[in-house]
Design a protein that fits this description.
The protein is an alpha+beta fold. About 20% of the residues lie in helices and about 40% in strands. The strands form 6 sheets. Strands 18-19-20-21-22-23-24-25-26-27-28-31-32-33-34-35 form a 16-stranded antiparallel barrel. Strands 1, 2, 7, 8, 11, 12, 13 and 14 form an 8-stranded mixed β-sheet that branches. Strands 15-17-16 form a 3-stranded mixed β-sheet. A hairpin with a 2-residue loop joins strand 11 and strand 12.
Length: about 725
């Protein structure tokens, strides 16, 4: 529930205190002997990093040649792109049209998740899993693994093959920190995107990056403004650009985000001041005034860029000492040819697999063909979908140029806390009128049990309606399109009869069953499954007159289930469709003691325009033969389920409900929603004709947030003067 909320806020804020998206590479040209070697040293500073672009624009206007770029974190991004052949105006356009926030999320968008992972969300909603392996709990090595950030960097660097950074148009170094020794590490070769990634991997926020046998984290910890490195590499003149944040005063520390940002400042400020103290009279320090902008101020990129440009112009007189004539500068620029290759043909595909899943399984999801030009758009989609299967902490791609041609490497790394995971869920439904339901759930899933990606899922929920569930899921091919499944479960349901809002009878239904199924998944949007379910159960009268009877029943059903899901968000979708059709036939041949057919269907259509969404919904439950029993009762009542009534207040053999839900989103990082609904439906007995059923009209007003535990919604429901209710719902219904 990319809901993802408070953890993401802290992540973005921290991350941008030291890091920001980046790129870099280019063939070096030794400057003419008649002029000094000029190095550009760029500091980290998150969203403030776009100020570097403003500085570059002025340097180009003044015809200042750059022979070397040394950079950290956010600076490594801007500097890397410039070194590989982009010009300042091109970088400006890239940065202003790139969604950097998306680069700092790990959870794939629902559109990229496998259908099975989408279904997981309907069972347990806290979007954080904990490893449980060899009898001990394991946590990730960072709040974010860097999956989407690395893909973003690959896109910006155009998947530049591994190379010596001295061979870029402008010599380049990205600075990182060795997590084991604390030493600064100047990355001088390899894949540009990976070097940038390492330079901005804030420890505790990002998982450390493994490069050259080291565990690397954000370079700002060791040296956030690497002037000394420029000297070591032969610079005569250093133009240093410091965009790091000033220390906050006591009255400016108003929130946990402010404290986290201050921690970043403490880690970097001292080494920045030490580096600045080494500048000589021939060097130039440019310090844009950015105290009003946080490291996560992506909404203010144009303003920050303008401030960087203004700060460089203020130093124009000093910078002019190093200006070239128009003819000299044209000759200099003519040598800065971009190093990326258009229509690169792939001669070999290698799977660099660090997981329990087979190479063939991963390769089967890659559509790139050998002997054909690299299709970055298709490759990016494939890598995202492999990651969306849920088995891997990070999936990326790289290009190597070998004597045998261009080699595409798909790098897949299992979650460091896997392959077995614990997840948790919470569901609370309260109407402040004596009716409440609660359930707490845990899920323990074993993944990658064999080369085809088998899973064993175990689910336990305790509370108002307990559930024990286990499932073994076995794909039948590397594409995992066809599968077989075996399930067993126990579930207890409470079925109430109401009169004028008061409970007149209550049944407790215990259901024990097992099933075998065969199915097919259609890409990541649909599934068809046939299964046979058998078991037994009993019905107990908890409340009601003495003449009410319970009893035992036998289960034996042939079921066909068809599902389609393209919703972009399970709780507050802005676009997409969800549809489910389940047809069950209860027959003695399958072990049943009753004969009936049951049809359940559900449909949601979501349409969004900017911040506004309208969702159309329809649900039906029809018993096509009479012998269903209490255990097959259809239930309505509760928020968005005939709002105004108690939870599951209305029971019958058949039910139908249609509704229109409209809401508006407010905020970005932690959005909340204001909305309203109109609902119409009812329940009835099989002997009643649908045309004789009087529909109930209901509606609601609500405010909600999409939190890390699931939706949290406060609502008022109205279904007539005698049926009003206030609801507090937390989490998803299991």
């Amino acid at each position: 529930m990319r809901s993802r909320a408070s953890a993401l806020v802290i992540l973005l804020h921290c991350l941008f205190g030291l890091a920001a998206p980046a790129l870099a590479q280019a063939p070096a040209e030794t400057p003419a002997a008649k002029r000094p070697v000029i190095a550009l040293a760029l500091s980290g500073g998150g969203a403030r990093g776009i100020a570097h672009v403003g500085v570059l624009k002025v340097l180009e206007e003044l015809r200042i040649p750059i022979d070397l770029i040394v950079a950290t974190s956010a600076g490594a991004g801007t500097g890397g792109l410039y070194a590989m052949g982009y010009r300042a105006q091109e970088i400006e356009q890239l940065f202003l049209t790139t969604d950097f926030g998306a680069g700092f999320e790990d959870q794939p968008p629902r559109a990229e998740q496998s259908f099975r992972r989408k279904q997981d969300q309907r069972a347990y909603m806290i979007q954080f899993d904990v490893g449980f392996n060899d009898g001990r709990l394991q946590l990730p090595r960072g709040l974010v693994q860097g999956q989407r950030l690395l893909l973003l960097l690959n896109e910006l660097t155009r998947a530049l093959p591994a190379m010596d950074f001295d061979n870029l148009p402008i010599r380049y170094r990205a600075l990182a920190t060795d997590l084991i020794t604390g030493e600064e590490v100047a990355l001088s070769q390899g894949h540009l995107a990976r070097a940038m990634h390492a330079s901005m991997a804030i420890p505790g926020v990002f998982e450390p990056v493994e490069l050259e046998g080291r565990l690397l984290v954000d370079g700002g910890i060791a040296n956030n403004l690497p002037i000394s490195l420029a000297r070591e590499l032969g610079a005569d003149v250093v133009i240093a650009v410091d965009i790091s944040a000033p220390m906050r005063s006591d009255d400016q520390l108003e929130s946990v985000l402010d404290v986290m940002d201050q921690l970043t400042n403490i880690l970097t400020r001292r080494n920045v001041d030490t580096q600045i103290a080494t500048l000589g009279e021939d060097d130039i320090l440019i310090r844009p005034e950015l105290s009003a902008y946080s490291s996560a101020a992506f909404e203010a990129l144009p303003e920050i860029l303008a401030i960087g440009e203004e700060a460089a112009r203020a130093q124009a007189e000093d910078l002019a000492r190093y200006s070239l004539t128009p003819e000299e500068y044209e000759a200099y620029q003519s040598k800065l040819k971009p190093v990326w290759q258009e229509n690169m043909v792939i001669d070999r595909i290698l799977i660099d697999n660090h997981s329990h899943i087979s190479d063939e399984f991963i390769r089967s999801h890659v559509r790139q063909r050998i002997g054909r030009p690299l299709n970055l758009k298709t490759l990016d989609e494939d890598v995202r979908r492999i990651h969306g299967l849920g088995y891997f902490g990070k999936v990326s791609y790289f290009i190597n140029q070998t004597p045998n041609g261009n080699e595409l490497v798909i790098n897949a790394r299992e979650k460091s806390w896997g392959p077995n995971y614990l997840r948790f869920g919470l569901n609370i439904e309260e109407n402040f009128d004596g009716e409440s339901n609660y359930n707490i759930a845990t899920n323990y899933t074993f993944t990658a049990l064999n080369r085809l990606g088998a899973e064993w899922v175990n689910h336990l929920a305790i509370g108002s309606e307990p559930l024990v569930y286990t499932e073994f899921y076995q794909p039948l091919s590397f594409q995992s399109s066809y599968y077989v499944t075996a399930r067993a479960s126990y579930r207890r349901l409470i079925v109430n009869d109401y009169d004028d809002g008061k409970t007149t009878a209550q049944y407790r239904v215990n259901r024990y069953s097992g099933s075998l199924g065969f199915g097919k998944e259609f890409s990541n949007f649909g599934r068809a499954e046939f299964r046979v379910e058998t078991g037994r159960g009993d019905t107990e009268v908890q409340v009601g007159p003495d003449d009410l009877d319970g009893g035992d029943f036998k289960i034996g059903e042939y079921q066909f289930d068809l599902s389609y899901d393209t919703l972009d968000n399970l709780n507050f979708p802005s676009r997409g469709v969800y549809a489910n059709l389940n047809y069950a036939m209860s027959r003695p041949a399958a072990g049943a003691d009753k004969v009936y057919d049951r049809l359940n269907s559900s449909l949601t259509l979501a349409f969004g325009i900017r911040r506004y969404t309208v969702s159309l919904r329809a649900n039906t439950s029809l018993l096509l033969r009479r012998d269903g029993g209490v255990e097959n009762a259809a239930r309505l009542g509760g928020f968005l389920n005939l709002s105004g009534y108690n939870q599951n207040e209305l029971t019958g053999e058949d039910a139908a409900l249609v509704s229109v839900v409209a809401y508006r989103r407010f905020g970005r990082t932690m959005p909340y929603y204001l909305g309203a609904s109109y609902e119409m439906g009812n329940v009835w007995l099989v002997e009643n004709h649908f045309s004789d059923v009087n529909p109930i009209h209901a509606g609601s007003l609500f405010v909600g947030i999409d939190s890390f535990v699931g939706p949290i919604i406060l609502a008022f429901g109205y279904a007539g003067q005698n049926n009003t209710s206030l609801y507090l719902n937390i989490g998803q219904t299991f």
